Amino acid sequence: MTQTLQKPAHLREDVQPERERRPIVRAAARGVVGSMAMSGLRQLTTALGMVPSTPPESVLKRTAPKTFHSVPDERRPAVVEAVHWTYGAVGGAFFGLLPKAVRRRRWAGPVYGVLAWAAFETAIAPALGLTRRHGRAERVALLADHVLYGIVVGASSRPPKKRPAQERHQGRHREDAEQAPPSWLQERP
Length: 189
What we know:
This protein is mainly alpha-helical. About 65% of the residues lie in helices and about 0% in strands.
């Protein structure tokens, strides 16, 4: 009697490995955290008068005015935050869909944040009929919080690999250091 061996699930073509979904879930989680970080920075820039109203609040007022105004005044900030965190999760998930070679670059997150800001300003806001008159301070504040979002979304979820003890103590050879690209262009572990 012969026995047929089956391939392990992670090697079979008809089964999607858990590993392929993880970057999307992790990036979505980092997107929520990134949105929370943005909210903190926006609290500061709004208090300083740099940003009169936040984009999530403007979107809600424009797209769902009846629903937005039916929420008691004291609860509206919580609704705005929940919607903003949802945007952040979706944006993070899209980052997780990018090829691994792109996601692992140090510059990928900040560039992604800038592109998210540019997409909102040039496509989403005009499509929703949001007219925003940006002063220089508001543009800088909104750009800065989107860069912060990108930094958080693009952050590696794995700790860096430790270098061998000998390499740590000796440092890199001069010619290796001259040929190596700048640290912000290097891949993360």
